[in-house]
Amino acid sequence: MSTYSASDLSDPRNADIQVWVGDGLKRRDEAAVSVFDSVVQGGDAVWEGLRVYDGRIFQLDAHLDRLMDSARAMAFTDVPAREAVKEAIFATLKANGMRDGVHIRLTLTRGPKVTSGMSPEFNRAGPTLIVLAEWKQPVYPTEGIRLITSAIRRNSPQTIDSKIHHNNLINNILAKIQANVAGADDALMLDLDGYVAETNATNVFLIKRGTLITPWADSCLPGITRRVVLEIAGAEADVPVEERRVTLGEVYAADEMFTSGTMGELTPVLEVDGRHIGSGAVGPMTDRLRRLYRERSASEGESLPF
Q1: How many other β-carbons are positioned within 10 Å of the β-carbon of residue 42?
Q2: Fewest CB atoms within 10 A around its CB: which of 126, 155, 188, 283?
Q3: Residue 67 φ then ψ, to 5°
Q4: pLDDT tens by residue, 48-92
């Protein structure tokens, strides 16, 4: 029996979706993994977020590259072939009649264990593939968001490499809880040295005197949307770009600020810790880059075979 109502969902059509789990499709209310699965036992999984625009999956190969790289870095064995993952994605979208306005949460767990425990030696059945596709528009308001700085620090390479897109997101969740309590949309997270890393869910960009600035991808995920923004800025917008350490003081003094990510695309940041960023409204460069990103995402991607 479901524990939600249509009003709880981002789109009422999501009440009847089918989800790929393991080797086939299951109804939403029946889609589940074993209690012995590594994702339950220890958050032992890797994942990607993808978007479908007008019959095309944007940056599909880039996301699959990162999924496979993360699985390899985590020493997964018997990883499904790339084409098999694609076929599962296509089958899920086709079963749900999805061709536009869709977000896909693609997860690959280490798989079920024969007994509870930490060691991957207990994983003998191979990974579990999950394709969760939902009707979901960008999750942030187009007019912009407010952030607070979290006391929770982002992982550094001293603890775990942020380039591994893993499912252990507890520090991000704790930061999001702080944002919720403060009445903010999300939380800005610093690295262990006190420099800006990212938000609990997105990469961040500043604009100062016409230059686009973003933190090094050391204590933050080198996001695919982030990379596309950097490409657009350099190749299409002719905007100078700096990747470097960024201080919180620079955030407060920025002319503009925005976040980037598949779930929310490009989102203006209007306020951080009670300080207005620039004019406190969507800035002209943010607006331009957002428009160029939308043009690119609407025209590129792997076409669906149905």
Answers
A1: 14
A2: 126
A3: -60, -45
A4: 999 999 999 999 999 999 999 999 999 999 999 999 999 999 999
Tell me if 134 sits within 8 A of 27, measured CB to CB: no
Whether the model clears a pTM of 0.90, i.e. scores above it, the answer is: yes
pLDDT per residue as tens digits for the range 235-279: 898 999 999 999 999 999 999 999 999 999 999 999 999 999 999
The two tokens of residue 32 are: 């589940």
Distance, CA of 279 to CA of 286 (rounded, Å): 13
Tokens encoding 287: 């607006």
Do 250 and 205 touch, CB atoms closer than 8 A?
no
* E strand or H helix that includes residue 269: strand 265-272
The span from the CA of 195 to the CA of 245, in Å, is 6
| Nearest CA among 215, 220, 216, 224 for reference residue 156 | 220
The backbone torsions φ and ψ at residue 121, rounded to the nearest 5 degrees and listed phi first, read -65, -20
CA distances from 226 to 75, 217, 258 (A): 26, 10, 11
Tokens of 207: 């604009």
DSSP 277: P
Strand-pair category, 24-27 with 18-21: antiparallel
